[in-house]
Amino acid sequence: MMSGVVRVVAMAVALLVLPAVASAQFGHPLKGQWSGEAGAAGKSLRLLLDLHWDGKNVTGRINPGSETEAEIKKVTIDYSKVTSWGVQAEAEGKDASGKPVQIRIDGTLENLGAYYRVFHGTWTQGGQKMPFTLTRN
Predict the structure, then answer these.
(1) Is the pLDDT of residue 114 over 90?
(2) What tens digit of pLDDT does each residue of 70-112 get?
(3) How far apart are CA 82 and CA 137, in angstroms?
(4) What is the DSSP string of 7-38?
(5) How far apart are CA 119 and CA 36, in angstroms?
(6) Strand 100-110 and strand 118-125: pairing?
(7) What own/partner pairs with CB < 8 Å and gap ≥ 24 does 55-64 have?
(8) What is the Cα–Cα distance from 124 to 88, expressed in whole angstroms?
(9) 72: how many CB neighbours lie within 10 A of its CB?
(10) Dihedral of CA 103/35/131/115: which sign?
């Protein structure tokens, strides 16, 4: 009888722990490679982001179209909503002539619990604002 109780308790603990382990393997919801576009159809900018989570900060690189890659300098996240987060990121890239260009991302991260998350909002590059949509690859 005692081994049956132990078995039931062990299974209950396993069922409680497995989701936490699976969630820890996913990492931060922004972590991963993202792709999408900014701008309107016909005048869009292809975007690629590679984001990492070091346990405290989101870091990474962006490749806004044909310009050189840019390192993300700062990421601010508003965790106050359960279903979506507000995200602001800043980076400095270069234009076609090699001059520095400020990049700012103001967006919303949705589908937090899903593998294929959606990140959308306003992409500002060199003073030009455009809507963007990214999906996690």
Answers:
(1) no
(2) 899 999 999 999 899 999 999 998 877 888 889 999 999 999 8
(3) 23
(4) HHHHHHHHHHHHHHHHHHHH--TT-EEEEEEE
(5) 9
(6) antiparallel
(7) 58/28, 58/30, 58/31, 58/89, 62/91, 62/93, 62/103, 64/38, 64/93, 64/103, 64/123, 64/125
(8) 11
(9) 21
(10) negative
Amino acid at 119: F
- pLDDT at res. 50: 93
Predicted confidence at residue 19, as pLDDT, reads: 41
The pair of structure tokens assigned to 59 is: 């870091």
For residue 121, what are its two tokens?
């909002």
Nearest to 38 by CA among 105, 95, 123, 108: 123
Q: Residue 13: its pLDDT value, please?
A: 46
Residue 128 backbone zone (phi > 0: left; psi -120 to 50: alpha; other: beta): beta
Beta partners for residue 121, in sequence order: 107, 132
- Amino acid in position 70: A
**Which residues are paired to 100 by β-bridges?**
94
Model pTM above 0.70? yes
Q: What is the DSSP letter of 117?
A: -
Query: CA–CA separation, 38 vs 89, rounded Å?
Result: 15
Nearest Cα to Cα of residue 108 among 118, 98, 97, 123? 118
